[in-house]
Specification:
mainly beta; Jelly Rolls; 9-stranded antiparallel beta sheet; 7-stranded antiparallel beta sheet; 6 helices; 27 strands; 43% strand
Length: 378
């Protein structure tokens, strides 16, 4: 059965004066359910406060806009209160309790992408709030709450009965604990400031989030990257070799995307713009080309062992002829390589031909796409 891979925008789930919570729905983006992926976005206005909650899924959070504060309580550890800003990525393992707050005038927006294989509902995040009108306290009787925390009945009735907010509230006259910069260590990585894993002149830049620069990623079980393409640059066709799904959110700009599936069939060809989310199935090959203003996206794959795609200038298309010649005579390879070099003469770029050559009699078979042959053309 064919699945609609078209990029989608999120829909508002709930909100108020303090902000809103948005989510991508599996009924509109079927790959969420098929791939056990959840995707959501939190947008807080000034003094907006997302109430303390834990989720049924491990997630990666990415700050899309603004500055804010996040409180994080890992299992059996003390609370850490982090100042976070645009470009920060935060790994949130199972069992973590979080709250989010925006004290700035600028809207504070956070993206959440995660694995729902152990979730209450496939393809969706389910949050369990500690307080609020839908918090866990409201479900217990006053007797249970009173005995659990040794509180008088009048206090319990106030605690349970006056939880009017749901999910997000707007605070007034409340002093929250101050964030500590040292709490950022080991908890977050700013993808816009981190050392570049790939840097191609007139092409783009890639920062990879993995267990080396953010160890908590290993507990989440996801890898991630931030890719920024220059105007009209291309990200080469690629796929994950270990059966992982690729989940991509367009942060800025616009461009075009193509996805190729079984038997070389093109299963997606469309334009993409800021706010879009789409998922590439296992083993399918994806490539993107930026519009003149450039293109930026944040992606996760469902493994912490990440292989980053590499951006190219549009002239990289000239080398795609190699991928079409899957059965080649050995005697033709040197001349073919010389022709490719000639085509790239005068252009500087990184050429990555993903091929593994196995000689049998007088033929060479391109049988793999993960061995990189690099050539710098001056």
């Amino acid at each position: 059965m064919e699945i609609d891979l078209s990029p989608k925008l999120p829909k508002k789930v709930h909100g108020g004066d303090g902000g809103s919570y948005f989510s991508w729905c599996p009924s509109e983006l079927p790959m969420l359910r098929e791939g056990n992926i959840g995707a959501a976005k939190l947008a807080l206005e000034k003094n907006g406060f997302a109430l303390p909650q834990y989720c049924d899924s491990a997630k990666v959070a990415y700050v899309l806009q603004g500055n804010g504060v996040v409180g994080i309580v890992l299992p059996e550890k003390e609370e850490k209160i982090l100042p976070v800003k645009k470009g920060d990525a935060i790994a949130l393992p199972f069992g973590v309790v979080t709250w989010w707050y925006n004290k700035e005038d600028t809207e504070f927006v956070v993206l959440f992408l995660g694995d729902t294989s152990k979730a209450h509902k496939r393809g969706e995040f389910t949050s369990f709030y500690l307080n609020g009108s839908n918090g866990i306290f409201t479900g217990f009787s006053t007797e249970f709450v009173g005995r659990a925390w040794d509180l008088e009945e009048s206090v319990v009735k106030t605690l349970v009965g006056k939880q009017s907010g749901k999910g997000i509230v707007k605070l007034s006259g409340v002093n929250l604990p101050e964030p500590k910069k040292e709490h950022r260590d080991g908890m977050t990585l700013n993808c816009e400031e981190a050392p570049l894993d790939v840097d191609i002149k007139n092409g783009g830049r890639v920062v990879v989030l993995n267990t080396k620069n953010l160890p908590l990623v290993g507990e989440v079980g996801l890898g991630a990257d931030l890719v920024r393409l220059d105007g009209s640059a291309m990200c080469s066709p690629g796929f994950s070799c270990d059966s992982a799904l690729q989940v991509t959110y367009i942060v800025r700009g616009s461009g075009r995307v193509q996805v190729v599936g079984v038997d070389g069939k093109r299963v997606l060809e469309t334009t993409i713009k800021a706010g879009n989310l789409f998922i590439v199935p296992r083993y399918f090959v994806v490539s993107k080309i930026a519009d003149p203003d450039g293109l930026e996206w944040f992606s996760i794959i469902t493994t912490p062992k990440y292989f980053a795609a590499v951006p190219y200038s549009p002239t990289w298309l000239e080398a795609l002829v190699v991928g079409r010649l899957y059965l080649l005579r050995c005697s033709r390879l040197p001349s073919m390589w010389m022709q490719i070099q000639k085509n790239f003469s005068g252009r500087r770029g990184l050429l990555m031909l993903s091929s593994s050559l196995h000689q049998s009699e007088h033929f060479s078979l391109i049988s793999s796409f993960m061995v990189r042959i690099k050539a710098f053309c001056s």
